[in-house]
Amino acid sequence: MKKSTCLVYIILTIVTISTVIALNPAQAVNSFPMTLTVNPTSGKTPLTVSFHLNLGSTTTKNVEWNFGDGTPHDTTNKLTVTHIYQKSGNFTGTVNVISSNYQSQSQVFNVNVGVASTTAPTTINNQTNAHQILESSQSGTALGATLPITVVTDLPSYNQGDTVIIKGTIRDIQNQTAIAVIVRDSLKNIVSIGQPPISSTGIFTVTLKANGPLWKQAGNYTVIAQYGKYQNATTTFQYSGGNGQIIENTPVKSDIFQINVAGQTYNVPYTIKGGTVKSMDIYADKLTLEITIAATTDGSLTVDLPRTLMDAKVQANLTADQKMTGVQINPNTQPDDKFIVTVNGAPVQFTETKDSTTRNLSIPFHAADTKIDIIGTQIVPEFGTIAALVLAIAIISIIAVSAKTGLRFMPKY
Questions:
Q1: For residue 29, what is the DSSP state?
Q2: Where are the alpha helices (DSSP H) in 219-376?
Q3: 406 within a domain of the structure (yes/no)
Q4: What is the DSSP-derived secondary structure letter of residue 317?
């Protein structure tokens, strides 16, 4: 082959490579509409789930489905597929799309197998926040009540210099198995990875600073908690972006507040960002824990509530006959319900993790807010137990005295 011919081939190769690079999908992320519908999002095994992608008028070159349960990927380039989950667990899958002009997008989805079935479909689009999906899918049930693994952040969005608190729970702890917590930015780059310790009751916590050269990209960040081969959970938060420098936005303080009630002392650990905790008071008649704060900036309060202090349980539905016969239901045996939380009297959305002894609430607040109320269904009585004990002793004493002295409280006819 002549040198001139070889030179022509080399030039054509360079032009071809340059064209491909120019069409690099990383340069055109989120440039076409993409909406994913998953139905159902949970149910008993074997669970058949339908997935549908709506891409508008976009034509595709490749669609790859990863269902998150270790089965082979679906590479049939279909926008609508079905998959049968044969084993229980909380599975995180992804669908990757490359359009005909080499633009790419990915979408993460969760399917919980082995819990109560959800009949309504879940629709996820580019702007949907995982906090909203998680809260709505757990309506009436405390987060972590039935799922094998959960993960949440204390706030739905952060700025450069903020502290990100990530908490989660593991239902079934396996010996020598570590939890991996990975944070990816909006371009799927890893900005943080770690293996936090797991408590004996299955709770793990990660605290991060949104600072430094890795925390530049603005957009939707994904937190992935991976436990073992198949169990994983995800959540997302919004990050406003940064310049790569190290700054400090909100002060963070962790401490333990002691509440003395009914002759007992309860330790309530807490972490507050952007303020200080002034007091914590129990109001048994209102089933309320009132927390007074001094907020200097927008922030959050993460508080660990001992179940022995207060709890929220689903109320038992007794039949008329049971009520007439005085049947009593131990509230501790009832399923968990959600707390009601207000800040300065207005209801707020919050995230929660829990174990058998503690319920952990992360509550957002704004600058100048002063009062947070947590309302449950049962709370340690301030005077009720002592009053009942005194009344019981008094009745027993009166009966004993009347038996010895013949004292009558009713006239003899």
A1: T
A2: 320-324
A3: no
A4: -
| Structure tokens, 353 | 């993790």
Q: Is there a contact between 107 and 125 (Cβ–Cβ < 8 Å)?
A: no
Half-sphere exposure of 170 (CA within 13 A, CB side): 26
Q: Confirm if 192 and 209 have CB atoms less than 8 A apart.
A: no
**242 and 261 housed in the same domain:** no
In terms of domains, do 174 and 99 share one? Answer: no
Identify the CA nearest to 46 among candidates 114, 147, 98, 102.
Answer: 114
Q: Which of 330, 169, 327, 314 shows the shortest CA–CA distance to 235? A: 169
Q: For residue range 364-395, list pLDDT tens digits in order.
A: 999 999 999 999 999 886 444 444 454 556 56
* Per-residue model confidence as pLDDT tens digits over 201-255: 889 999 999 999 999 999 999 999 999 877 789 999 999 999 988 887 778 999 9
How far apart are alpha carbons 141 and 337 in whole angstroms?
5
Number of domains in the chain: 3
Instruction: For residue 91, give the CATH number of its domain.
Output: 2.60.40.10
Query: Which helix H or strand E contains 132, and what residues bound it?
Result: helix 130-137
Q: What is the mean pLDDT of residues 50-61?
A: 88
pTM above 0.85, yes or no: no
**Peptide bond between residue 364 and the one before it cis (omega within 30 degrees of 0):** no
**Are the CB atoms for 164 and 215 separated by under 8 Å?**
no
Rounded to an integer, what distance in angstroms lies between the CA atom of residue 22 and that of residue 408? 102
Interstrand relation of 378-379 and 310-311 (parallel, antiparallel or unpaired)? antiparallel
For 405, list phi and psi in degrees, rounded to 5: -100, -10
Residues contacting residue 306 through CB under 8 Å, at least 6 positions apart:
266, 267, 268, 357, 358
- 220/366 Cα distance (integer angstroms): 22
